[in-house]
Amino acid sequence: MKIPINNLKIAHRGLHDETVPENSILAFKKCLEEGIPIELDVHLIKDGNLVVFHDDNLKRLTGIDKKIKNLSREELASIKLSNSNEQIPFLDEVLKLVDGKVLLDIEIKTDKGSFKICKRVAEMLDIYNGPFMVKSFNPLYVAWFRFLRPNYQRGLLASKLTSSSLPAVIKWLLYEMAFNFLCKPDFLAISKDDYSSKKIEKLNKKYPILLWVTEDDDPIFDGVIFERKM
């Protein structure tokens, strides 16, 4: 059953601050304490495991200048997040922790450049007993779920992709959501800083919209992916 987007308030990478790292077990536990849906990011690493981490490089959050996709679960196990005692979690750990208590909004990262990550995510979610949505900047990933997991609620992320190394024409096509005819998303997750209100209002006539990242959890359009100071 598809989840209503209206009035959704989702915590961006969990409830985190200077002492609670983003995308950490502690950040997710704080969401569970308040009954708040969780947004998180998933990468596929070299041994086939799915790790919950936003960046494709460890440096910002650990000080270690390594690509996460090139590491194994064993190698990541000893690394701490942001000078804390929190380890980098894996998707199986997060699913066990949340156990259907709140909605999970799972962003599928694209640094591996293959559909294997979609398959691995689906294998885990097929046996997960709880509400979830999947989303990605890559419309081909969203299309994969459209055709191979049509019962999943799927979303397309959209922004200017300023930091991406993609060719300008590809960035423009993604910004304009030119591949929606193929992936047919159930909702759009749109950067509030990259689209005008007029543009969002036009898109909202066709799609439910989650706006990210907002500074509070007051719903804008249909719902928000928010960050707040703890």
Summarize the amount of helix as a percent range: 25-40%
Biggest sheet descriptor? 8 strands, parallel, barrel
Shape: globular
Please list the strands of the largest sheet in the order they lie side by side. Answer: 1-2-4-5-6-7-8-9
What structural category arises from helix and sheet content?
alpha/beta
Radius of gyration over all CA atoms, rounded:
17 Å
Compressed to H and E, one letter per element, the order equals EHEEHHHEHEHEHHEHEE
Kindly state the mean pLDDT as a whole number?
95
Please specify the SSE layout and strand pairing.
Blueprint: E1 8-12, H1 25-34, E2 38-44, E3 50-52, H2 59-62, H3 73-76, H4 91-98, E4 104-108, H5 116-125, E5 132-136, H6 139-148, E6 154-158, H7 168-175, H8 180-183, E7 187-191, H9 197-204, E8 209-214, E9 223-226
Parallel strand pairs: 1-2, 1-9, 2-4, 4-5, 5-6, 6-7, 7-8, 8-9
Antiparallel strand pairs: 2-3
Question: Summary?
Answer:
By secondary structure, the chain is α/β, with parallel strands linked by helices. It is built from nine helices and nine strands.
Describe this structure in words.
With about 230 residues, the chain is an alpha/beta fold. The protein has helices spanning about 25-35, 60, 75, 90-100, 115-125, 140-150, 170-175, 180-185, 195-205, and strands spanning about 10, 40-45, 50, 105-110, 130-135, 155-160, 185-190, 210-215, 225.
